[in-house]
């Protein structure tokens, strides 16, 4: 998905009801809101005792099972859209795109179409042999400009266009969806170039999302700073919390921001809670969320 996440524990108040611990991965959307993208819950024996789920141990005695619950859901489709898309539509990472390369012939008359289609089919065979999915769009009821916009909207990673002049010159027009960069490249070596480009686009989409995510993490040390950043910038706010449910609920009631996670890599750091002023031993991440 090319989606960077922060891994951490949920606070007791945000933990799955009945669980002893909840691990979460939290992602940042382009509007500055967080999205819980997946969770793993350690249920202990709580649910086993509630539903009388037991097993026979090695000694032949009945014991309550120790259980976990974990997974991701269709919300990840929302994450994919909100994290990467731009004003032209979807931007799909190649590893998830149902169509990775679309080919659009530019022609006048059936004779030119047949010639261009034949060349496209040869290129398509080479791409398919590399495991790259391809579509040749030779519809004659819409203009090429319409097709260009359609596939940008759908987020197809690479678009190829070829006209009679390209056929003569042995070139092809290549547009990558992540940057919208357009260039005319040789047809020779095109398959290998696109194979490499799939990896480059995948990594570029991730780097862009990671840079944005990192730019949206702000450290604050006071309640006034917390409210100002939350209202003007959004994103993740790294702040001290005294560890009590009462303070967590008070912050949520005042700002609609919740503790998204206590990061696994959060170092010990002495400080004071931004809300209560009580001692705190590490920072947690707050954000408004979906």
Describe the structure.
The protein has 290 residues and is of the alpha+beta class. It has 3 domains: 6-84, no CATH class; 101-212, Rossmann fold (3-Layer(aba) Sandwich), CATH 3.40.50; 217-287, Translation Initiation Factor IF3, CATH 3.30.110.30. It has helices spanning 46-51, 75-84, 110-129, 144-154, 164-169, 190-215, 223-232, 245-255; strands spanning 6-9, 21-28, 34-44, 54-56, 62-64, 67-71, 101-105, 134-136, 158-162, 171-176, 182-186, 217-219, 236-240, 258-263, 271-272, 279-280, 283-287. The strands form 4 sheets. The chain has an 8-stranded mixed β-sheet with strand order 6-3-2-1-14-17-13-12. Strands 8-7-9-10-11 form a 5-stranded mixed β-sheet, sandwiched between helices. A two-stranded antiparallel ribbon has the order 4-5.
Topology summary:
Layout (H helix, E strand, L loop, with lengths): L5 E4 L11 E8 L5 E11 L1 H6 L2 E3 L5 E3 L2 E5 L3 H10 L16 E5 L4 H20 L4 E3 L7 H11 L3 E5 L1 H6 L1 E6 L5 E5 L3 H26 L1 E3 L3 H10 L3 E5 L4 H11 L2 E6 L7 E2 L6 E2 L2 E5 L3
Parallel strand pairs: 7-8, 7-9, 12-13
Antiparallel strand pairs: 1-2, 1-14, 2-3, 3-6, 4-5, 9-10, 10-11, 13-17, 14-17, 15-16
Q: What would a concise description of this structure say?
A:
This protein is an alpha+beta fold and 290 residues long. The protein is 34% helix and 28% strand.
Essential attributes:
Rossmann fold, 290 residues, 3 domains, Translation Initiation Factor IF3, eight-stranded mixed β-sheet, elongated, alpha+beta
